[in-house]
User: Fold these one by one.
Assistant:
Number 1:
Amino acid sequence: MFSKGTKRKFSDGGEEISEETLVGARMASSYSLQRQSLLDMSLIKLQLCHMLVEPNLCRSVLIANTVRQIQEEMTHDGSWQVVTEAFCSAGQSPSERLVATEVLCRSREQDAEPKLFSVISYEGCREEEVVADETLCSVSVSDAVSNVCLAGSIGQCWEKSDVETDEEALKDSRLGGSGEDDEIDTDDEPSREGPKTIGQVFGTFEIKNSSPGPDSALEELFSDVDTSYYDLDTMLTGMQSAPKMGPYDLLDSLAPSHGSSSIVSAPNCRSDLNELDHIMEIIVGS
Amino acid sequence: MEEESDFRKINNSFLRDHNYATEADIISTVEFNSTGELLATGDKGGRVVVFQREQESKNQPHRRGEYNVYSTFQSHEPEFDYLKSLEIEEKINKIRWLPQQNAAYFLLSTNDKTVKLWKISERDKRPEGYNLKDEDGRIRDPGTITTLRVPVLQPMDLMVEATPRRVFSNAHTYHINSISVNSDYETFMSTDDLRINLWNLEITNRSFNIVDIKPTNMEELTEVITAAEFHPHQCNTFVYSSSKGSIRLCDMRASALCDNHSKFFEEPEDPSNRSFFSEIISSISDVKFSHSGRYLMTRDYLTVKVWDLNMESKPLETYQVHDYLRSKLCSLYENDCIFDKFECVWNGSDSVIMTGSYNNFFRMFDRNTKRDVTLEASRENSKPRAILKPRKVCVGGKRRKDEISVDSLDFSKKILHTAWHPYENIIAVAATNNLYIFQDKIN
C-alpha cells in the first residue's frame, strides 16, 4: 500500500510539473543530459563502493566530490529542484529540499568512510536481523513486519528525502506500519496505474527476505544497476545528439537516482538494531 | 653510454615472458636497487622476484647486462582482520631497497597494511661435523657420542636465501600507498590514504605519526594522500601529494607533527579546460624527487609535471602523456580507468622522464631537447634483442600507416609501473604479468 501511495504521488508530481518539465526538456541541452547521466553514473559507482568493506578511499572521495560538484551546479541553475520535485512532496520549501540534498550528499560521504556502516553491509545486517527474528516470531508476522519496514523506509524516501534523524525515521516507519498516513489514499489506487504494482514491489522484498545474506542483496543491487547502467550507456553514446524527452522520459532517466533511494535510506537505517526491535514490537503489538 | 640516447635504439634485451596470466601474476611494482645490479618486482600474489644482472662475458657480448632470476620468495600472505572482518590482500604495493652496507641485500616490501624488511643473502658454504646432530639434522643418540669434533665449513652450491627480518604492522587503518627510505638510512616512512608514519628500521613495535589529514568528522573528508617520498639527501624533508593535485613539502625539524607544510605546490586550474573531471584528472598518482633533489616530478591522469623546489606557483615543465584521452574522459570514468594510478621515473641524470600509458605504451620525455617518444612493450611487436619502433597514436580522421587510432587502444593493457637503472640507460617496464627490460643499443 505504501508503494501505491508512492506511485500515485509520483505520477501526480509528473502531472504537476509536466509543463515545466516539458519546457525544461526542450531546453535541455546535451550538457545537462550529460551532467545528469554523469550524476547517475557517479551515484551507481558510490553505491557499488558501499558494497566493499574497505573501498578504495581515493576513488570514493573523488567520486563523492564529483557528485557534490554536480549537485552544487544543479542547485545553482535550479535543475536540482526539478529533480527533487520528483521526489519531494509539494508542501516542502526549497530550503528543505536543499537540506535534503545535503543529506543525500552526506550519507554518501559517510559511506566513503570504510569504518562506518556502509549501506550495503548494513542491508546485509538488516536482512540477517529479519531472519533471526523469524526464529522468535511466527514466520508470517515477521514477513509482514519486514515488508512494512522495508516498504516504509523506501516509500518514505520516495516521498521526501529529508530524513534527518533516526527518530524521524522511526516515527515515519511507525506511521507506515500502522497505516495511518493520510497521504496514502488506497481508494484512489485502482484508477491510477503506476509502472510498478504493489505485487511487484512486495515481490522484490519477498525475494529479499527469502534470500538472506549480503550476496543476494548484492545480486539484486546489480540487477537494479544493470538496466540503469545500460540506459546510461545509450544516453551517453547514442542519444546525446538527439535528445527527445517527454516528462516521463525525464523521470525515467532519473531512475538511477531512484535506485539510489537505498542510499537515502541509509541514515534511518543507521538506527541501531534496538530501534528496529522497538519498531517490530510496536507493529506486532498493534 | 651517451646520455642523450636515441630511444629508438633501445634494445629489447630480455623478456621474462611465460604463458601464465593469472591475476596473482600481475606485476604491481618494479624497483632497481641503488647500484642497479638487482631489480625487484612484486606481484598481486604477494611474491617478490629479484633479478640479478649477469656479469659481462667476453664470449657472449650481446648477453651483457641481461637480468636473470636471482631469488623468488613469498613476501606477504593473504590475511584476515578479525576485528574488522575484512580480508587483507597479499598484493605488494611497493618495494624499496635499502642502500647496501654488507654482502647482503635488504629491501622493504609492503601490502595494504604491513611493511616487511627482507634480507636477501647468498650462502655457498655450510657447516658440517656437529657433535649433537648428524648431517641430516637429527639429534644423535648421546650414547654414540664418544669424541668431540670441531665443526667445519664445507663449500656447497650457491644458495640465495630471503629471510624476513622485521615486520612493521598495526600502524595503518587505511591502505598503504607508498614507502620511502630516508637518507639517514635509519628511518623510513609508510603512507596510507590519510596518514604518514615514521619508523625506525630497528624498531617494529612503535611508529611516529608525522602527518594526519583525517578530519575528526569523516563526512568532511574531501582529500586523500596519494603518495609520499623523502628527499634524497635532506633527511628532514619529505613531500606528499594529494588527490586534489597539490604537493606539500614538510620539514620535520619544524615540528614533530608535520600537519603544517612548509611548501605548497599547486598549479592554478585552467578555466578553459574545466570540467566535472577536472579534480579527478588532477589527482596525483605518483611523486618522485629527482636524484639531485632539486626537482619534483608528479604524475596525474593526463600529464607528467616537473616542479622546481624553489617555485611553488606552477610547474617548471608539463608533458602531455596522452592528451588524446581528454575527449574520452566520460567513458574512462565509466569504465574506471580514470582512477588508474600511473607511476613515473627519472633517468640517472634527471634529464629524461618516463611514465606509462594504455595499450602497453610507455612514454619518454627528454627535458633538454623536448623530444618525446612513445614505445610499446608487447610480445607481438618486440622480439628479444630487437630494436623498438616508436609508436604514434592518431588523433584526427586520417590515419597513416603504422599509426594506431585512439578508438582501437586497448585500455586493459596498461603500463602503470616502470623503473630506470640508477645510472645506465636500462629500463624495466611492467606490462600486466610481463616484465620487459630494455636497454640502449650496444655497438
Number 2:
Amino acid sequence: MSYQNWLDYLQSAEKNSMMSGKLRKVHYKFPDGRQMAEEYNMDTGIVQRRAWRKSKQLMGEPEWEIELGEEPRQLSWGSKSTAGGGGGDADNNMSAPEFTVRESNCTPLLTKRVTKKNIEWRIRNLPYSLEVYSVTAEPELHAIVVRTSNKKYYKVIPVPDLDRCGMPPIQGNISIHHQFNTLIITYQKPDILCEMEAQVLLLLKNVETETDMDDLLKGLLAK
Amino acid sequence: MGETEKIEVRDITRIERIGAHSHIRGLGLDDVLEARAVSQGMVGQKDARRAAGVVVQMVREGKIAGRCILLAGEPSTGKTAIAVGMAQALGTETPFTSMSGSEIYSLEMSKTEALSQALRKSIGVRIKEETEIIEGEVVEIQIERPATGTGQKVGKVTLKTTEMETNYDLGNKIIECFMKEKIQAGDVITIDKASGKVNKLGRSFTRARDYDATGAQTRFVQCPEGELQKRKEVVHTVTLHEIDVINSRTHGFLALFSGDTGEIKQEVRDQINNKVLEWREEGKAEINPGVLFIDEVHMLDIECFSFLNRALESDMAPVVVMATNRGITRIRGTNYRSPHGIPIDLLDRMIIIRTVPYSEKEVKEILKIRCEEEDCIMHPDALTILTRIATDTSLRYAIQLITTANLVCRRRKATEVNTEDVKKVYSLFLDENRSSKILKEYQDDYMFSEINEHEEEVATAGGGGAKRRIDTGDGDAQPMEH
C-alpha cells in the first residue's frame, strides 16, 4: 500500500520537459532502457496522455504503446496501426497494402482517460444494451474484466495506476454506463492514488522546462 | 491459375529427395554412448562413432568453445556420414553448419570473411521476446479477388474465443498465408501480429462432426479462452551471422534473403558480441554454440588455416569438425608437405578421429539400409553380388547400382531386383577401375593423347615431376568423395 517504489522509479529517470500550448510534455528515460512520455494539462494538472516505449531486442525502433489517452488520429491507415484510430474506408485500404492484419474498424475500441476523481474507460462500437455487460474487479489479476453475456466481447483491463500504489481493484468503486454505442466504465480513484499523483506533480516541479518553441518562434518573428 | 501453381509447389516440398546420406538419423549410440552395431542408419565404425558421441555431448553442454575435431580416413569410410549423424543427434535446436573446403573460394568475398561467416552461422542465440499474437477459432472467412484475376485481394476473417468475437481485415500477404495453410471455418489458428505468420493449431472440437471422414493428421483442439489478443513470450533462435546481417546498416535485413551479404565489418561483429553478452547477463538471451563442419578440409589454404588458428581462440567460437581423406600431402598455397594437408600447429590443436575401411559384412548392412531408403526390394543373392562389387570396386559405385538396378527391374515389371538386373547394370555402367583400364588400353584412340604425353615429358624434364604427380593424384581422388 505504498507508492514509494513508483516515485523512486520516476526519480531514477532522466527527465526532460517542454511546454506546448496548454500542455506540458515530460519525457522519462529510465535506467532499464524504457522510455515514458506524459502530457499534463496545465490548467488541471491531470495527465492526458501517457505512452511507453519498451526496448526491443532484435531490430528496429520499438513502437510507442499508449497506456492512457487517445491515439493520435490517422487519416490513412499506417502499416502497423493496432487499433482503429480513424476512418479507414475502402479507398484507403487500397492505398496502404502493407499491413498484415488489423481489427476491422467496426470492432470495439478501448480508450482510457483520467479525471480528477475517476479513471474512465470508454469502449466504443459496443452496440449491446447495458444488461449484457458484467464488469468485475479481479484482485488476483490486478485487473478489471469486462464480459458480455452474448459472448461477443471480453477484455481484461489492467489498471497500472492502482498497481503503482499497491492497491487491488475494488468492485465497489466501479460504475458502468452505456450510451451512443459506448460503454463507459468509471472507477473512483482511491485517496492513496490521488496522493500519489500529487507527489508526482511535486516531483515534476523540479524538472526544468524548456521554452515553448511556438512562443520562441513568435518572438523571433516579431523582431 | 495462381491456385494450381501453388498446389504443385506444396507437393514438391512434401516429397523428400533421397540424398547420399539421407538414411542417417543419428549416431546410433545407446545411453552410455556405446555404439550399437546397426542403428539409425549407421553401420560399423564403432570407435569413431563413440568418439563422435563424446563430441556431441561436449557440444550439448556448450561450455567449451573453439575445439577442433578432425575426422580422418580413406575415401568412403563414412566421414561425412558421421558428421551428418552428429548433426541429427544434436537436433534442430543446435546450429549445424556444413560446408565444403572449396566453398570459401569466391570472387565476391574474401576467404577469411567466408570462414568467419561460417563460424558465426554456427553460433545460435536464443532470444526471448514478447510478441502479440491473435489466437482464436475461425468463424467465418471471406476472401474476395477481383474479377480480372490480378490485383489486390480483399480479405476479412472473424475469429472467436469462448468469450468474444472480433472481425479482422486481412492484408494481401496474410491472405496468401491463409490460402497456403488452407484455413477454413472451424480451424483454430494463431497469427503473429508483427510478422504476420499464420499457424494452424487444429480443428475445433465443436466442429468435429462437420465431416464423416477426416485425415489421420487432423488434430482437434479446444476453442481458446479469454481474449483474442495475447502477449506471449516467444523464443527465437537466430544465429550470430543473422544478427550481423540485420545490423550491418548498408544492407538491412533483406540481405538475409538475397544472400548477398558482402563483407561485414569487424566493428559490427564486436558490437554484436558485446550486445549478446549483455543480453545474456540480463537473462534475455542464451547462447547456443553449435558445430561447424568443414568437409574436404585439405582444400583450405595456408591463410585459412592460420586464420582458423586465431579464430578458434575466441570465446565465441563453435566446435569445428573437419574431415579429410588425404594422407601426408602438400598444404595448399605452400610447397610444404604435412599430415592431412593441415599445418602442424593447427593439427596440434585438434583431436583426431580415425575412420577405418568397412568389412564385407558392414558393407552388406549399408547396402541393405540404402535399399530400404530407396524403396528397393532386393533378392539376397543380388545383395551378395552387390556386396562383392562394393568390396572390389567402391561402396559408392555399388550404391549407385542399387538405383539403376531398381529401374531396370521395374522396366521388366518385377518387384524384386535379382542377380540378372545387377549384372545388367554392372555391364552397362563402368566403375572407375574398369574405365581407367579401358582408357589405358585405348589411349591412342582418344583425342589430344599425343599432346598430353608430350606435355608430361616436358614436365618431368623440367624437374617439377613430384609436384605434378601429387596434383594428378588429387584429381583422381576427388570424384570419389562426391
